[in-house]
Design a protein that fits this description.
This protein is of the alpha/beta class and 363 residues long. Helices cover 55% and strands 8% of the residues. Strands 2-1-3-4-5 form a 5-stranded mixed sheet, with helices on both faces.
Length: 363
């Protein structure tokens, strides 16, 4: 079935900008149109229509950023019937209009072609990107000497940077949290925050401090002229990034802040200059009150927040997929979840917790 599904995805990609026809897809694969639609939704957790819409608007965003083509020509090229329809789809996906994005390009969450049998073995740095990362670091060192702290999303990314000798001049610390899971408090890294986060993760306060707080001592104790935040484009990373930005604002940090977005599929790095303004309020609205904020956001953070609010629902696209595949061996189910929902960025722990909760509710 995986081979058939990959053939289906390949055919959809080959006909992404044509008048799509379920009948033609079915004829190509030898199945009924209904079966193709049903199996795609069942095995990917998303409808064909939604998949195609997300792929087209993402590919169009690349042309908006990298070419001088007229917006209306890009809209028609990617299958939208009008510039207005394209603008609605673009803003609905990224939280920003095509015209604003074109004037000031900002990081977006990538939406790549489905590869059904792909595996997620953790962050793995593409060594070919080392020179590019080194060039970014050298530019920052020319400006700030060695008064720079790099905050990396998680221990694995930290170790990858260390193993590839990307830690030559400035300080690096890992942010070992999963802010998309469990409750939090307004005052970040207060005693109340630490106790609540430890309880949510079902570890002792001592273990939480050892794993999460102690590695961040340079952040708490030293004065830096520049903070560089290395986070991915998925929901997991964006909730962590939001927390770090809110903390810096909470502490009245006055130095420069850069967001270096690491694209997991390509390991390219995109740099964005961050102004610390409003993130503490956004953190509270999102991670405490679970509301979509009205503030203007980086598109990638807007996407992450939308996914986070979806993830919090008892019935969401991930739980729907799990319910349909509870009979699958857990290791196989986990690999399917990693493959089909990379934009959430969840790991084994989060998925196993969801699987167990669904199994318990079904008993």
């Amino acid at each position: 079935m995986n081979n058939t599904m990959q053939e289906m995805v390949d055919w959809i990609e080959d006909h992404l900008f044509e008048d799509f026809s379920l009948e033609n897809l079915g004829n190509e694969l030898g199945y009924s149109p209904y079966y193709c639609s049903f199996k795609f939704h069942q095995l990917t957790g998303i409808t064909i229509k939604r998949y195609m819409s997300l792929r087209k608007v993402y590919l169009a965003s690349i042309e908006l950023k990298d070419t001088n083509q007229k917006t209306i020509d890009i809209a028609f090229k990617y299958g939208f019937l009008s510039q207005e329809a394209f603008s609605r789809a673009f803003k609905g996906t990224f939280g920003i209009s095509p015209s604003v994005f074109r004037k000031t390009p900002q990081p977006l969450q990538t939406y790549v072609k489905f590869i059904i049998n792909s595996r997620k073995d953790g962050f793995s740095m593409d060594i070919s990107q080392k020179l590019k990362i080194g060039a970014l670091q050298n530019i920052l060192h020319d400006q700030f000497d060695q008064d720079i702290l790099n905050i990396l999303n998680g221990q694995m990314m930290y170790e990858q940077f260390y193993n590839h000798q990307l830690m030559e001049k400035s300080d690096y610390v890992p942010f070992n949290e999963a802010m998309c899971s469990n409750d939090t408090t307004c005052s970040i890294f207060s005693d109340e925050f630490i106790k609540m986060r430890a309880s949510g993760h079902q570890v002792s306060v001592q273990d939480y401090e050892r794993i999460t707080v102690t590695p961040l001592k340079p952040l708490f104790e030293n004065k830096y002229k520049c903070m560089v935040l290395w986070f991915g484009d998925d929901m997991f990373c964006q909730m962590n990034l939001l927390t770090v930005l809110a903390y810096l604002e909470q502490e009245g940090y006055e130095g420069k802040v850069y967001f270096h977005m690491v694209k997991e599929m390509t390991y390219e790095v995109e740099e964005t200059d961050i102004l610390l303004e409003g993130y503490k309020e956004i953190y509270q609205q999102v991670l405490i009150h679970h509301h979509l904020p009205e503030a203007n956001l980086m598109p990638v953070m807007y996407q992450g927040i939308r996914l986070y609010l979806e993830y919090l629902k008892e019935d969401n696209e991930i739980t729907a997929f799990i319910k349909k595949h509870l009979g699958m061996p857990q290791d196989e189910l986990l690999q399917q979840l990693f493959s089909l929902f990379p934009h959430y960025g969840l790991g084994d722990t989060q998925y196993i917790k969801m699987i167990q909760a669904i199994e318990e509710r079904g008993m």
